[in-house]
Design goal:
globular; binds magnesium ion; single chain; 331 residues; binds threonylcarbamoyladenylate
Length: 331
């Protein structure tokens, strides 16, 4: 089992021990506002290779390089006025910007998968402090075995990766609950590579223009390799937009909608009885994990609105419902 340090109770110990394990080129599970990350020194190929090994990731996808602040990010990525405006508006926060890699960046190509771009973000809270103390960007995908749902608390990480990693820094449940929104900025064009914890509406209000949503069919291996395949794969089938539940199924409701067949459901969850999309995002992965532990034939999701964080929630459950491909590009 991994050592767990509660960052609320033992803050300086968590920082010191976190830096020590990172220095030894081993990954550390860290809390971020979106999901828990499996973090390693983004400038050290041995450390990055350990992330892939621990996650059992089938192939090398580009990883997000997490920064302590905009100043650190500017040493590794090239910002223009538009990307700087977004960074100033939303960092620290659940936004990743895919930008040209800076010529002087020390980020290792194993983190960028050899691309000439890099995904950068400044996470909120303890993660930013740890990066500042460590002094280098941290590559960090979600801290789960490839193909499982992203962890939103330290217990999820311990249960999944506890025998493969040394240290989990426990910051309590993740507040946002879904991964960061990923934007690619190219000149005047802003493209959404992944809907996530920052609503598109807020981004569009900031920059005063529409962003381009990626056509799913046009998502190429270069654009967002981790975004292609069935990303979350519960054992049970997943059915979407249901207002009735079949015998032997689990219902995942939203906003306490009236659902037919409740008496024969084997379990009933509600992502947010008050119909709050941000509460639903925060609960999504832990409810999917609980549902996946029950012997159900299928998990039926009630309709969830598509606006604001509903876009990311619907994206993640659609991936969970997608047919399982032979070769996947899980992250
Ligand atoms: O909220 C999050 O973003 C979490 C926490 C831990 O920060 N991290 C996360 O990382 O979700 P990961 O590795 O699971 O997803 C990173 C996504 C992948 O789909 C990857 O393909 C894309 O970012 N990505 C990273 N760098 C890229 C680049 N240069 N070009 C295109 N896509 C990139
Ligand atoms: Mg992931």
């Amino acid at each position: 089992m991994a050592e767990i340090i509660d960052i609320g109770r033992e803050h300086s110990q968590a920082l010191a021990r976190g830096c020590q394990v990172l220095e030894s080129a081993e990954p550390v599970a860290i809390p971020t506002e979106t999901v828990y990350g499996l973090a390693a020194d983004a400038t050290n190929p041995q450390a990055i290779a350990r992330i892939y090994e621990v996650k059992g990731r089938p192939r090398f996808n580009p990883l997000i390089a997490h920064m302590s602040d905009l100043a650190m990010a500017e040493r590794h990525a090239v910002f223009d006025p538009l990307s700087r405006k977004l960074a100033e508006a939303f960092w620290p926060g659940p936004l990743t910007l895919v930008l040209p890699l800076h010529a002087d960046s020390t980020i290792h190509p194993l983190c960028t998968a050899g691309l000439d771009t890099v995904g950068v973000r400044v996470p909120q809270g303890f993660a930013g402090e740890l990066i500042a103390a460590f002094g280098h960007p941290l590559a960090a995908p979600s801290a789960n075995t490839s193909g499982r749902v992203s962890p939103t608390d330290a217990g999820h990480v311990q249960g999944d990766l506890g025998d493969k990693i040394r240290l989990i820094l426990d910051g309590g449940p993740a507040g946002v609950g879904v991964e960061s929104t990923i934007l690619k900025i190219e000149g005047d064009t802003v493209r959404l590579l992944r809907p996530g914890g920052l609503a598109v509406r807020a981004i569009e209000a900031c920059i005063g223009r529409k962003i381009i949503r990626q056509d799913k069919a046009a998502q190429t291996a270069i654009e967002a390799p981790g975004m292609l395949a069935s990303h979350y794969a519960p054992r049970a089938d997943v059915r979407l937009d249901r207002l009735h539940v079949e015998p032997g199924e689990i219902l995942v409701n939203f906003g306490n909608q009236p659902i037919a067949g409740l008496d024969d459901a084997i379990a009933i969850f509600d992502l947010s009885p008050q119909a709050s999309l941000s509460e639903a995002a925060a609960n999504l992965f832990s409810i999917m994990k609980m549902a996946d532990q029950l012997p159900a034939r299928a998990i039926a999701f009630a309709p969830i609105p598509h606006h604001d964080l509903g876009e990311a929630i619907n994206d993640r459950i659609a991936r969970a419902a997608a047919p399982r491909p032979e070769v996947s590009y899980e992250d």
